[in-house]
Amino acid sequence: MQRNPTRPVRIGSVTIGGGQPVVIQSMCATKTVDILATAAQAEMLRKAGAGVVRIAVDSRRDAHALAEIRQRTDANLAVDLQENYRLAAEVAPYVNKLRYNPGHLYHHQPHLAWEDKVRYLADVAVRHGCALRVGVNCGSVDPALRQRFPANDTIGPMLASALAHCELLDRLGFTQYCVSLKDSDPHKVVEVNRRFAAQRPEVPLHLGVTEAGLPPEGIWKTRAALVPLLREGIGDTIRVSLTVPNDRKAEELEAARQILAEASVQAPGPADQPELPLLNIVSCPSCSRVENESFVELAEEIRRLTRYAAQVPLTIAVMGCRVNGPGETDDADLGVWCGPTTVNLKRGAVHLGTFRYEEILPRLRLELDRLIAERGGAP
Ligand code: SF4
Questions:
Q1: What is the domain-level CATH number for residue 345?
Q2: What confidence tier does 11 reach under pLDDT thresholds 50, 70, 90?
Q3: Strand intervals (E) in the chain
Q4: 99 ligand 1 Cβ < 6 A
Q5: Ligand 1, closest atom to CA 337?
Q6: Neighbours of 258 (CB within 10 A)
Q7: Residues 6+ positions from 359 with CB-CB distance below 8 Å
Q8: Which of 263, 295, 329 is the last residue of a domain?
């Protein structure tokens, strides 16, 4: 594959960019505080081919666990920081990369400017020899930035966010960073990454479709976005985010390898794959933050329940936790996000209520039938 001339960014024993082969990644979905399970999953992913394994850290307990996990795996580790960016200093000695989400920086210490928070993260990264990932996500763009764009422009705020963070890191003299711009819509992933690469061709890109969902549809969506980008030379590291149980996590790596193999062949025309159903189920791959272990099963049950409406052009989002659930379901027609013992149901941005796990499916069916009726009748 001909590749964009990105600069090399070192993550432990692998380098992304700089003409190196595309690195495939995955993420642990075990509870980070469960040291043995997380170390075992990191090792399993490493052996299955993950050049980088990401682990979520949201608390001091997670940070302490990470120090132990580091002793038990040879994987190159990336830490996923969401709202609590200040944990960076505690985890950096044990990892090779820090991922932060620009859209979550405003939650803690709102009196501080985001620039100060990024300066802090860059300082920590320099002190500990870590790379950074500026991880922009469609469902969690900084609201202040979002307001500057028309409501129907979801790409503009993502791009502006990534570019602003790159400019600041450049001003700080920090170059060991990569960027990701993820959306659950493969077409938007293609567009936003193309536009970013046109403006910053030297910055390595981490590609992925966020919340691609259950296989095989999740693989088809990711393929639809990543194959064209990779064939254009865009992308230095990839992740296929699949909603699968923990013992099937290695499927993400197998799917990533297939995508790379397909992208390396300059075949004309679209990828040879079945048409996606018009009813689009967007579901997260789960991670340490998932609030109930039956989340993956719930996503599968929702797919089964909604098969009768497969040809209705609607989106149902199914998310595993309260960190990203509320925001990431806003753009869906119906949204479901899990709490420890209950499930939240939304219609667009409107919260319809909180239901027990055994109540949610009939209620979701009712709302889906209502939506279908409002939009002109039977599927
Ligand atoms: S929605 Fe929550 S549980 Fe799912 S991957 Fe994102 S942070 Fe993890």
A1: 3.30.413.10
A2: very high
A3: 9-11, 14-16, 23-27, 52-56, 77-81, 97-100, 131-137, 177-182, 205-207, 237-239, 280-283, 315-319, 334-338, 342-347, 350-356
A4: no
A5: 1
A6: 14
A7: none
A8: 263
Assess contact for 349 and 332: CB atoms under 8 A: no
How far is CA 346 from each of CA 77, 97, 110, 378, rounded to the nearest angstrom? 35, 35, 28, 22
Query: Atom 2 of ligand 1 has which residue's CA nearest to it?
Result: 321
Among 211, 228, 263, the domain-final residue is 263
Domain count, the chain: 2
Residues in the chain: 379
- The pair phi, psi for residue 48, each rounded to 5°, is -80, 0
- Sign of the dihedral through C-alpha 217, 291, 347, 83: negative
Q: For residue range 239-290, what is the model confidence (pLDDT) as tens digits?
A: 999 999 999 999 999 999 999 999 998 665 555 677 888 999 999 999 999 9
* Dist. CA 119 → ligand 1 center (Å): 26
184 CA → ligand 1 middle, Å: 13
Three-class DSSP category at 228? helix
In a domain, 156, yes or no: yes
318 CB within 6 A, ligand 1: no
**Which token pair is 156?**
């503009």
Look-up of token digits 């290695």: 250
Ligand 1 site-directed mutation target among 84, 101, 211, 286, most atoms within 8 Å of CB: 286
Residues 252 and 285 in one domain: no
Domain that holds residue 289: 280-374
Q: Indicate whether 333 and 241 sit together in one domain.
A: no
Q: Are residues 179 and 145 in the same domain?
A: yes
Quickly count: other Cβ atoms within 10 Å of residue 305's Cβ.
16
For tokens 């307001």, the residue is 147
- Per residue in 150-171, pLDDT (tens digit) is 989 999 999 999 999 999 999 9
Distance 291 CA to ligand 1 centre (A): 9
